[in-house]
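The following record pairs a protein chain with its ligand, magnesium ion.
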Amino acid sequence: MNAFNAATVESSVNLARWHEIEYIMSNSLKNNYFNMVYQPLVSLNTGSLIGFEALVRCDSTQYGVVGPDEFIPHVEQTGMILELGEWIFERTLSDMQHMLYMGLDSITVSLNISPVQILHGNVFNSVMTLLDKYAIPASAIKIELTETALIHSPATIAKVLEDFHREGVSIWLDDFGTGYASLGLLRQLHIDGLKVDRSFVSNITENNEDFTLCSAIIAMAQRLGLETVAEGIEHENQLHILEQLGCDIAQGYLLGKPQNLIRSINTWMK
Ligand code: C2E
Ligand code: MG
Ligand code: MG
């Protein structure tokens, strides 16, 4: 097959998959295909659980599991993220109330927010109303926004982040190091912490450049008074290096895979 044919086949496969995702998404909310899972975040100072990142899943009976990396860009493009985002907030905060009730107190829950929700929805009001409804303090919530999200309408994003900051909600920059945000934005916006992207962490033991990047991000964060989470830790030796570099919080399969509400409570309630 020549390069032109290969590209044509690939684009028709992509198009067919796009229509499949569109079909799955169109029935997903009413058929209850979505679910939330929670991945632990562990303090590298104390070794104890500090909270969870809430991650959405889609499991359709007909098509099986579709990952958020595939469907989030789709729902962002169609606008369905606004409705799905509301569902995610409601389910997560209701689950968090359950965690607190079961005794998993002094934990935080991190919510991933799409820039589309900030620019075209009313995330601030939605989250604040739900915190009130479920009697959860604002300081128990962290908002995760990808670094790339900041380059879309930074003024609008800054205003919403300021509203959250005023109420005591922390703001974290996700996948840090992979986007194009200017470092100046770190000072202008009310950012509380950086999540070092998994792509740097996964080769930290073998690749000198990745090690240098991780140590530079952590050192910069410390000087700016920001906390750091390292994402995607799978091996003990990665954990030890990040600990030595002064990283504050660890996340990855080594510490725990994302699990549903009941399993998270059973695993982490001591
Ligand atoms: P993210 O926010 O950076 O989430 C971390 C991703 O890394 C998750 O993938 C998690 O399962 C995965 N991960 C964590 N530790 C490890 C590890 O040790 N090894 C490996 N291989 N992977 C690890 P997931 O759940 O597939 O989510 C992918 C992305 O989809 C998220 O990246 C986030 O950008 C988006 N996403 C997920 N849930 C939501 C949501 O509720 N709302 C929005 N707007 N986006 C979401
Ligand atoms: Mg995240
Ligand atoms: Mg991330």
